[in-house]
């Protein structure tokens, strides 16, 4: 690197911060005797950021982006199940219940007595159906999903056949 000359503004460890005639502040290596603040000093410029710091930043950015992408995918609804017009369940791409919304007072009471968030749709529906069976009401499901999303309710179907 080319030698740089300037007025010494600060000294840290084995480096000096100098101000060049052009008004630029640079960090240079101290060779030999330590200069005094305010004196003119000439030395080679120090690399500002070592390579390992770039690698650390790149790795951190990669972790941040991938974590954000996974969280976005998990909390993006891809299907919706409405149970007896009293509550709505929003599902993610892995058939997990990510959001519950009561549509009336009955749905609100049902959700207050059960926690089905982050459960598999089959397990959540089985819990909700058990509550409804105590009331001896008919159960209706209204399912809406993205066009290429397959909603796997096979375990729920099997358990509901066993109960009949």
Key features of this structure:
single chain; 164 residues; alpha+beta; 2 domains
Molecular structure report:
This protein has 164 residues and is an alpha+beta fold. The protein has 2 domains: 3-44; 76-163, no CATH class. Helix content is 35%, strand content 28%. The chain has 4 helices and 8 strands, in the order ββββαβββααβα. Strand 2 and strand 3 (25-29) form a beta hairpin. The chain is rod-shaped and about 90 Å long.
List strands and helices in order, with pairings.
Elements: E1 3-12, E2 15-19, E3 25-29, E4 40-44, H1 51-74, E5 79-83, E6 87-91, E7 97-102, H2 105-113, H3 121-135, E8 141-145, H4 154-163
Antiparallel strand pairs: 1-2, 1-4, 2-3, 5-6, 5-8, 6-7
